[in-house]
Automatic annotation (TrEMBL), chain A:
PROSITE patterns: 4FE4S_FER_2
Pfam family, one: Fer4_4
MF (Gene Ontology): 4 iron, 4 sulfur cluster binding; metal ion binding
This protein's name: 4Fe-4S ferredoxin
InterPro entries from the UniProt entry: 4Fe4S_Fe-S-bd, ET_IronSulfur_Cluster-Binding
Taxonomy of the source species: Bacteria, Bacillati, Actinomycetota, Coriobacteriia, Eggerthellales
Keywords: 4Fe-4S, Electron transport, Iron, Iron-sulfur, Metal-binding, Repeat, Transport
Source species, domain of life: Bacteria
UniProt domain 4Fe-4S ferredoxin-type: residue ranges: 3-33, 46-79, 80-109
Keyword Repeat belongs to the record: yes
UniProtKB/TrEMBL annotation, chain B:
UniProt-recorded Gene Ontology molecular function terms: electron transfer activity; iron-sulfur cluster binding; molybdenum ion binding; molybdopterin cofactor binding; oxidoreductase activity
Protein name: Dimethyl sulfoxide reductase subunit A
Entries under Pfam families matching the protein: Molybdopterin, Molydop_binding
Domain of life: Bacteria
Family affiliation: Belongs to the prokaryotic molybdopterin-containing oxidoreductase family.
Positions of the UniProt region annotated as Disordered: 121-140
UniProt keyword list: Iron, Iron-sulfur, Metal-binding, Oxidoreductase, Signal
Entries under PANTHER family matching the protein: DIMETHYL SULFOXIDE REDUCTASE DMSA, TRIMETHYLAMINE-N-OXIDE REDUCTASE
Any one Gene Ontology cellular component term annotated for this protein: outer membrane-bounded periplasmic space
Source species of the chain: Slackia isoflavoniconvertens
Organism ancestry: Bacteria, Bacillati, Actinomycetota, Coriobacteriia, Eggerthellales
Occurrences of domain 4Fe-4S Mo/W bis-MGD-type (ranges): 53-114
GO biological process, one term: anaerobic respiration
């Protein structure tokens, strides 16, 4: 069984509501971000297209963070969620280095932390905070097979701003705009 | 001590907030990491961090454009988490009222480490006026904590003195509250703020007040083929559900066109075609579009809806002039060049507005009568110098295509919570009846000019308005000195233009009294600061949102520190003045909350509004209020627990709305409010009122839309004021887009939002290259009015020649250099005006250069403004 995120690029304005919802739920201080949304442009004025992408842990089939962790603090749960136990973490930082998506973050206390797919909220019957927060309903979460059934087969895990999915087999399923496959992108850092 | 430079660092926010809340309740859960408790093995029972907490519907009350659901988990008196609407299953027809990025950080407002906890007095200030006030030290002085008794005594002593000597005109307040009206009164400032030139006589044209409310409802958006987003970016300016309606129209096949100097976030998502019209030159673009519609109609036919024009409008052509016209001219002949020999062709418009002629032609085709086109505007183009006739021109263009009163067609505004969802309310909030108070002074002064008046100790003004969106014939008035300033419920010194002179004016008076939660701009330049609660610390309230939803919020926490509510503060001030507080407040805030609930209404099956909430004698007794039981459709308990009431809509529920339809169906029986009862493309009444003010440049105007040279605008970027000539010292157009980090000024201090939205200056790639500016560089923005700094966001999605200074950053002047480190938009704008005195927020002029002084750090790393008094 695998769980993962669905992201509908055609519905994302890059408003970053997901980013703050995640910071809130995880009580993260300034400097530590588990989910973020970025906006990219392709082309130059006035022939320009844009898209936004909301990124967090992809709860990969082959989590590089877990493979790299020397203390066994990272675990892939039965449902596929990749969880980092901060009590076990010794702050080695190997996961931060290993993840091609840059997901785990070192806290000021030296230990790492990352998205746990709001495991406890889900256990209590809820939805990950970012998904529930999205004003445009651009995010969803669930069993991968269910997501594919719900959103169709045209979903991709590779867009120009992400590393190749070959490495870790990420469970992120994107309804991508065509523009998002073009490599000549620029971040709109506004 | 002053505002700390070494106070609580950003990383100490959590601890800082704990300290803040400690006075009210322990904030024990704040800072814990829930996922630390997800144990590695499944054998360990997972602990839900929310266990033991209670979800409370929390207020979200700012001038942001939304009224969305904001729920907070309160545990041991502290807020440990927020979430948005989950009160019913979400569907496109019956959407949850989900909030935006800002509301999710609301906890950092209420519980911010930078909350003002106690009444403060500026050390150098003493009552008595004159040199006692040491006014020049406002904004520089240190603060001392004083008791509420001292604060009220000092304030009332000073208010009495000024009131006795100068009367009501001795004071100024932008938005006086009841206590100010009763205590002393004040001169008011007027401003065209949000709706720009739509604040002047929109009804005279035949539009609703401020142009609000005559588009179609959300279900009909799906019937459009083309949706023009004119100066419109709902995701930043109409947070909440509106963007979701646009998504649904997009998914139903509508094609979007964005008219905006910035390829904005909404347009990006919708893959809109982009027409980057240069700020403040919209009239040239719109006139040329009309010219092309006429040309195409002549050449090919079926573009202009002549029947519509001749049935529903006056002043478009010679055969449809209104009876009160004093000038025998019309829009069509002006466009064709009959009067000035200049046809308003796309080639004429191109050097002004920057849109290539073929794109104007394509746009004219989209506006043609056989397309289902919705022309939905926000107001950025009306917040420009010289934009007085934009309301008439936009409605004229919509009328040329006949895009009114029909499904799939619209001409109207897309603003705030009603963006993309116009129509009469299906459910509405009640209100408490309070004593009517009257300001003994009716004089209103154009806000930016008021500062000069204060500095000059009074002078002659033409009083033309003292209420928003309402102008009257000019009343010549001579004002004496203004000695006292009140800031009660607004952020005037930050949100009004001419801020630099505003600071000087604040330093020129005897006394500035401010209510504040933080060391805001208003607070910083004050003498006494009274700590006021946020809505989270009050008893609760009900607010109207969009037409389908009312929000009911409850108290989250006891007041932080010594903060008091507005009513408590007003009561103390009135008592201090020896007046009866009941003149302003005659019932408790709980009673007011009850009346808001009891007064809520919902549309009944019979088409009449009727009570929404069922109230029993038991409810009344439990709440400890006075009232009568009533029958509604939801129990009071449920209403409060659910956080309000949403009217469940379906596409065929009969509550769909088509703007203008009643007038279009029956123009004689349901005339508009204009003199002719029709849409006045030529409007004598509005022109006469505006011209009577005699403001600079008004001689250029006609009673119908024409292109005028603004007092400050694109022309001003050229040395000789002629487009196409040599550029002058301020070669760029500067404008102030709304920014998602804050609601005007509110939230600008929240660390999470500072980190998430960094407050840069928007610079086009082409201009950045020419100026040697890279992403993240510190940029000095210079204007005739002032200088400010921001970090550069170099964009491929901004029209070259335009500089965007997102609105609302809290001014932070370096007293040595006079440079504002926050890059406050209004610090960079002066007081120039023309036409009818519109505030030209969006077509100012500036220069930019790479700053050679110390680079700015990201402002989420700046110390918070914590008063160490």
């Amino acid at each position: 069984m695998s769980i993962g995120f669905y992201f509908d690029m055609s519905r994302c304005t890059g408003c970053r509501a997901c980013q703050i919802a995640c910071k809130d739920k995880n009580r993260l201080e300034v400097g530590t971000i588990y989910r973020n949304a970025h906006t990219f442009s392709v082309g130059s004025f006035p022939e320009v297209k844009c898209y936004s992408y909301s990124a967090s842990c992809n709860h990969c089939e082959s989590p590089a963070c877990m493979a790299a962790c020397p203390t066994g603090a990272i675990d892939k749960r039965e449902d596929g969620a990749v969880i980092l136990d901060r009590e076990v973490c010794k702050g080695d930082g190997a996961c931060v280095e290993a993840c091609p998506y840059g997901v785990p973050k070192l806290w000021e206390d030296g230990k790492a932390g990352k998205c746990d797919s709001c495991y406890l909220i889900r256990e209590a019957g809820g939805t990950p905070a970012c998904v529930a927060a999205c004003p445009n309903r651009a995010l969803d979460f669930g069993e991968v097979e269910e997501l594919k059934k719900k959103y169709g087969d045209a979903l991709v895990s590779d867009i120009a701003v992400l590393p190749s999915s070959d490495k870790t087999k990420p469970n992120v399923y994107i309804n991508a705009k065509e523009t998002a496959t073009e490599t000549g992108f620029t971040e709109v850092d506004w | 001590m002053g505002i700390t430079d070494t106070g609580i660092s950003r990383r100490k926010f959590m601890q800082g907030s704990m300290a803040v809340a400690a006075g009210a309740a322990a904030l024990s859960a704040f800072g814990c990491a829930p996922n630390a408790e997800v144990k590695k093995t499944d054998k360990t029972e997972a602990v839900n961090p929310e266990e033991g907490g209670t979800w409370v519907n929390a207020a979200c009350w700012h001038n942001c454009g939304g009224r969305c659901v904001n729920k907070v988990m309160v545990k041991d008196g502290a807020v440990v988490r927020q979430k948005t609407d989950d009160s019913h299953e979400d569907s496109p027809d019956y959407p949850q009222q989900r909030g935006c990025v800002r509301g999710k950080a609301q906890q950092q407002q209420c519980f911010g480490a930078d909350r003002i906890m106690h009444p403060l007095k500026r050390k150098g200030w003493q009552p008595g006026g004159g040199s006692n006030s040491n006014g020049e030290n406002r904004g520089k002085d240190e603060w001392e904590v004083i008791s509420w008794d001292e604060a009220i005594d000092l304030a009332c002593q000073e208010i009495k003195r000024i009131s006795d000597e100068y009367g009501p005109t001795g004071f100024y307040c932008k938005s006086p509250d009841p206590s100010i009206n009763v205590m002393c009164g004040c001169v008011r400032g007027w401003d065209t703020t949000s709706h720009g030139t739509y604040t002047l006589g929109a009804e005279m044209i035949g539009l609703p007040s401020c142009g609000l409310g005559n588009a179609n409802d959300r279900f009909d958006m799906k019937n459009a083929e083309y949706i023009i987003m004119y100066a419109s970016n709902p995701t930043w300016s109409a947070a909440g559900t509106p963007t979701y309606y646009y998504i649904q129209a997009h998914e139903a096949g509508a094609k979007f066109i964005c008219v905006d100097p910035l390829y904005n976030a909404s347009a990006q998502m919708l893959d809109a075609d982009w027409l980057p019209v240069r700020n403040g030159t919209d009239m040239a673009f719109l006139l040329a579009t009309a010219y092309e519609m006429l040309r195409l109609d002549e050449a090919e036919g079926d573009i202009v809806d002549w029947d519509f024009l001749h049935t529903y409008t006056v002043g478009f052509d010679a055969e449809s002039m209104p009876s009160d016209a004093k000038v025998n001219e019309n829009l069509k002949d002006y466009i064709l060049g009959t009067y000035d020999g200049t046809p308003k062709t796309p080639e004429w418009a191109y050097p002004i507005c920057g849109i290539e002629p073929e794109k104007i032609t394509a746009f004219a085709r989209i506006m043609g009568k056989n397309n289902k086109t919705m022309l939905l505007h926000n107001y950025g183009m009306a917040r420009c110098n010289g934009a007085e006739m934009i309301p008439q021109m936009i409605v004229a263009l919509g009328a040329m295509g006949g895009h009114m009163g029909k499904s799939g067609h619209a001409t109207g505004s897309a603003y705030h919570a009603n963006c993309g969802n116009a129509g009469p309310v299906l459910v509405k909030a009640g209100s408490a009846t309070m004593p009517k108070t009257k300001n003994p002074c009716s004089t209103g002064v154009r806000q930016p000019q008021l500062y000069e008046l204060i500095k000059n100790g009074g002078g002659d003004v033409l009083d033309v308005s003292n209420a928003y969106g309402s102008f009257h014939e000019g009343i010549p008035t001579t004002l004496g000195p203004i000695k006292g300033i009140f800031h009660s419920t607004d952020a005037t010194l930050q949100t009004s233009l001419n801020q630099k002179e505003g600071i000087e004016a604040h330093r020129a008076v005897d006394f500035v009294l401010t209510r504040a939660q933080f060391m805001t701009t208003n607070a910083r330049y004050s003498d006494i600061i009274l700590p006021v609660t946020t809505e989270w610390e009050r008893v609760g309230g009900v607010t109207s949102s969009n037409r389908e939803f009312v929000y009911c919020y409850s108290q989250v926490t006891e007041p932080i520190g010594e903060a008091k509510t507005d009513q408590e503060i007003g009561t103390l001030l009135l008592q201090g003045m020896g007046m009866d507080p009941a003149l302003a407040y005659d019932k408790s805030e709980t009673q007011q909350f009850f009346e808001q609930i009891a007064g809520c209404q919902v549309l009944g099956d019979d088409g009449e509004m009727k009570p929404l909430v069922t109230i029993t004698a038991d409810d009344i007794q439990k709440m400890g209020v006075e009232g009568e039981a009533q029958e509604g459709v939801i129990s009071m308990d449920e209403f409060i627990t659910n956080g309000g009431y949403q009217y469940e809509r379906t596409s065929d529920d009969g509550h769909g709305f088509i703007g203008w339809k009643s007038f279009v169906d029956d123009p004689a029986g349901k005339p508009l409010k204009s003199n002719s009862g029709k849409i006045e493309i030529y409007c004598q009444q509005r022109y006469d009122l505006m011209a009577s003010y005699g403001y600079p440049g008004v001689e250029q105007y006609k009673p119908y839309p024409t292109y005028v040279t603004p007092c400050v605008g694109y022309e001003s970027t050229f040395k000789d004021g002629k487009i196409g000539g040599e550029k002058g010292d301020y070669p760029f157009i500067m404008y102030n887009p709304h920014y998602l980090r804050r609601s005007h000024t509110v939230f600008d201090n929240c660390p999470w939002l500072r980190e998430t939205w960094a407050n840069p200056v928007f610079v086009s790639r082409e201009d950045a290259k020419a100026k040697g500016i890279s992403d993240g560089d510190t940029v000095l923005i210079s204007t005739p009015a002032g200088k400010g700094l921001r970090r550069a966001a170099v964009l491929d999605i901004l029209l070259p020649g335009v500089v965007g200074v997102p609105h609302g950053a809290w001014v932070d002047v370096d007293e040595k250099t006079g440079i504002d480190r926050a890059g406050s938009d209004n610090y960079l704008i002066g007081a120039e005006y023309g036409g009818f005195g519109v505030s030209g927020y969006n077509n100012q002029i500036c220069n930019i250069e790479k700053y050679t002084g110390d680079a700015l750090e990201p402002d989420c790393e700046w110390p918070q403004r914590i008063v160490n008094a």
